[in-house]
Every structure is written in C-alpha cells, then in structure tokens.
Amino acid sequence: MSDPAVLVVGSGPAGLTAARELAVAGVRPVLVVDREVEAGGVPRHCDHTGFGLQDLRRSLSGPAYARHLVRRAVGDGVAIRLSTTVTCVGDDGAATLVGPGGIEVVHPRAVLLATGARERPRSARLVPGDRPAGVFTTGQLQQWVLLRQLPVGRRAVVVGAEHVAYSAVLTLRHAGVATVAMVTELPRHQTVGAFALATRVGLRVPLRTSSRVAGLHGHGRLEAVDVEDLLTGAVERVAADTVVFTGDWIPDHELARRCGLTVERATLGPRTDRWGRTSRPGLLAVGNLVHPGETAGRAALGGRDAGRWLGADLSSGATQVAARGLPVTVARPLASVVPSVADPGDPPRRLLLRTAEFTGRRLVVARQGGRELGRHGLRHSVPNRSLGVPGAILRGADPDGGTVELSLA
Ligand SMILES: Cc1cc2nc3c(=O)[nH]c(=O)nc-3n(C[C@H](O)[C@H](O)[C@H](O)COP(=O)(O)OP(=O)(O)OC[C@H]3O[C@@H](n4cnc5c(N)ncnc54)[C@H](O)[C@@H]3O)c2cc1C
Which atom of ligand 1 is nearest to the CA of 53? Predict the structure, then answer.
C-alpha cells in the first residue's frame, strides 16, 4: 500500500466508523491499524446485547456489532491491517508501524487516534497483598472466557458496581463461576435499577456498598479477598479464587502522550473539540480514548463526526487546524466534561459530564466570568455514568471571554 491519506489507529467502533466516513467522503486510501489479531475492538469479546443503540438504532451483541462495523468499513473501501502497533507519530506526521513484517514508516496527511480505554488493573489501584493468579479486569476476563475458552475458577469477588461490573457477573456465570460478592466504595450501585435487582435477587449476588478490597491472599492461586467496610473499619476475609477489577477507566493514551498532545487532568484523555481535533493540527482523537467508559454507540458517533470533518477538510484542501474554541471546565461535584474545548458559535450537539457524587434533581448552570449563559435540568446524577447536556447551553458565550464553567445548582 502507498502512504495512506489518513491513518486510523484502533479498529474499535470509533476508529472503524471514522474510517468509513472518510472513505464515503472519497478520501483514499484510508488505513486502519490494530494491534489485535482481529478487528472490532472491545465489543468482539462482549457476548451480550446492548451494542449499537445510539449509532445503528438497534441492539446487537458485541461480536455481531463488531462484525457489522468491520464489514461496512471494508465494503466502503477501508483497508485494515492487524497485529500491528503504531508506536509513534513524529513531528512531521510520519507514523511508525510495528507488525509481523517488521517496522514500517508511513506518511499520512492526517492521523486519527482511536485507541480506546482500559480498566485500571489491580497494580494501579494499589491493592496490597500477595500476587497470585486469578486476578482479572473485565476485559481480560472476557478475552479469557469468550475468545480463548479458558477455565477461570469457582468463586469470584467483583470489584465495582457500574454497568461493566454487572457484565462481569454475567461472564463469570457463563464460565460456571459463582460471584460471592460485589464490592463498591460508593453508597449505591451505579447501574440501571433492574440490572442491580436481577443480580441481587435473581442471581443471589450480594452487593457490599461503602466497602473496598483491602488485600489479596494466596500463594500461586488466589485464596481469599479482604473486604473492608469503610463505615465501620471492619475487615472480612472472603474465600475466593478469582477477583475481577471492573470499571475505573483509563484511556489508552500512551501514543497520544508520545505525540505530545495536551491531556485533560480529569479524564487523562487528549483535549479535543467537537470534531475530535486535538492540540496538534493533523492529529485527531475520538472514542473512549477521549471519554473513557462511554458506550460503543457514543464512541462510534464521535468517530463519525471526526471522519466527516476531516473528510471535508482534506477534500477542500484546507489546512488542518488544532482544536478551536473556549476551554470548558467543571466545578465539583462535577468531575469532567467532554469535549473540553467548544466554539460557542458552533457548539457540540452534546456535552458529556461525569459527576463524583449521587445527586437528586439539579440544574447544570453554564457561566463565563460569573455571567450565566444557560441552564439545563437533570433528573439525577450517578457517578460512573455520563450526563448529557445540550451543547447549546454554551451559545451565549463571548468568544473572547475566556473559560466557561459548568456547575450544579
Ligand atoms: C465488559 C464490557 C461491556 C460493555 N458493554 C457495552 C454495551 O453493552 N453497550 C455499549 O454500547 N458499550 C459497551 N461497552 C463499551 C464499549 O465496548 C466501548 O464504548 C467501545 O468499545 C469503545 O470504542 P473505541 O473504538 O473507543 O475503543 P475500543 O473498542 O477499545 O478499540 C480500541 C482499539 O485500539 C487498538 N489499539 C490501541 N492502541 C493501539 C496502538 N498503539 N496501535 C494499534 N492498535 C491500538 C486496540 O487493540 C483496540 O482494538 C462495554 C465495554 C466492556 C469492557
């Protein structure tokens, strides 16, 4: 293949959808590169329905959704190269690809990063104790069970109580493993009430709230997990041969950092505007790299927007630009906002907010220099779930007036 016009790094929903938009816009060649042996990203190993709701307006299983996106992209002219890692994008835009054939350097006109996110593993959560086998994240567990059909264990503790933790319980069940406890530091679960009820009552999985995993024990294989009640300080040793650390997402941002992109402290993903433009012209970022822990559909829609903008930009021969607009920040208990750069004249359709606390009915208020720009009502807010706020809330901002802050009232 000659130099691609656009190099897309990552073949998950965001990368495949962006690549397809570029191909549909007539950009050629578009090359998607993925380090895995198969294209499709995380949904490949999520063997349950609930994928495609926002972008395809229907619910598919993860593998079916991944296959659909791959077929559609390839059908529209996208090339995919697998088992290949992009290790660097130099200041001149040259990208280094390392694959089975060795090292190759390509010179695309633009690079779109769609490298996704991962769950924080045990080591990064600083959980003390032994280092036995039987310790997973949900992603690792699903790869183990669904892609490689390997045995897991018999009794598991699941750490976390957001959507993905409930997905881990189902995967464990599929593998014949009983979940003996779910543990969350927060006072309540963070998923849909029906899932939580079905798991607690139907599957008889107890949820320990305001609790944390304080230690792992086992020589060779995990034997027990210490669960500490954060309200009383009591520690109980729970017999288990498997522990799954779920959620607590961190963007796969190593390449983005190596490219020198400005990274948001709140999300640890690159700072972007609504089109996925970053702090570096010619380098875009989309999907869970930018908003870790969102749905596949949201990742795909972000990819679509970025692909559309980049396709039009390349076709018109315009010079590529960095993210444009005002900085958008949040005040506690709001924890993050994406995108974090917004043009008040061309705001994003939606701002994705995260909160650190459970709240009841509240208002999101946008202010610039103390002047109120707009407000939007929320029914409630739950940590680890996003809150969608119309981007139009930023419309009245002065383009020269500095940072817009979002807070709860
Ligand atoms: C257990 C679980 C259950 C889920 N359930 C649902 C659900 O029911 N519904 C839903 O909508 N969403 C669900 N999600 C979320 C969904 O999977 C993600 O939102 C989606 O996969 C994000 O897409 P993405 O393209 O941003 O990243 P990913 O799907 O993570 O894809 C990123 C790709 O980039 C590749 N990559 C990374 N770095 C490099 C590099 N340097 N070089 C080459 N390749 C690289 C990776 O190999 C990967 O294939 C679930 C997630 C998990 C983990």
Answer: 11
Tell me the per-residue pLDDT of 51-81, one tens digit each, with 9 for 90 and over: 999 999 999 999 999 999 999 999 999 999 9
d(C-alpha 152, C-alpha 331), whole Å: 42
Alpha helices for 283-388 (secondary structure H): 296-316
Which domains are delineated in the chain? 6-118+249-323 (3.50.50.60), 121-245 (3.50.50.60), 327-408 (no CATH)
Residue 201 Cα to ligand 1 midpoint, Å, equals 30
179-206 b/e (C-beta count within 10 Å ≥ 16 → b): bbbbbbbbeebbbeeebbeebeeeeebe
pTM exceeds 0.90, yes or no: yes
My answer on whether omega of the bond before 383 falls inside 30° of 0, hence cis, is no
Element (H, E) at 189: none
Q: How does pLDDT run across 314-332, given as a tens digit for each residue?
A: 988 777 789 989 999 999 9
Q: What is the pLDDT of residues 87-114, one digit of tens each?
A: 999 999 999 999 999 999 999 999 999 9
Digit-coded pLDDT (tens) for 248-307: 999 999 999 999 999 999 999 999 999 999 999 999 999 999 999 999 999 999 999 999
Distance from residue 372's CA to the centre of ligand 1 (Å):
37
What b/e sequence results for 1-11 when a residue is b if at least 16 CB atoms lie within 10 Å of its CB, and e otherwise?
A: eeebbbbbbbb
Evaluate: CB of 116 within 6 angstroms of ligand 1.
yes
Report DSSP letters for 77-94, one per residue. Answer: T-EEE-S-EEEEE-TTS-
Ranges of beta strands (E only) in 264-359 are 283-285, 326-330, 334-338, 341-342, 350-355
Q: Which of 7, 9, 34, 42 to mutate to test the pocket of ligand 1 (most atoms within 8 A of CB)?
A: 42
Give 89 Cα–ligand 1 centroid separation in angstroms: 21
Decide: 191 and 168 in contact? Cβ < 8 Å: no
Residue 2 has pLDDT above 80, yes or no: no
Token duo for residue 142:
């699903």
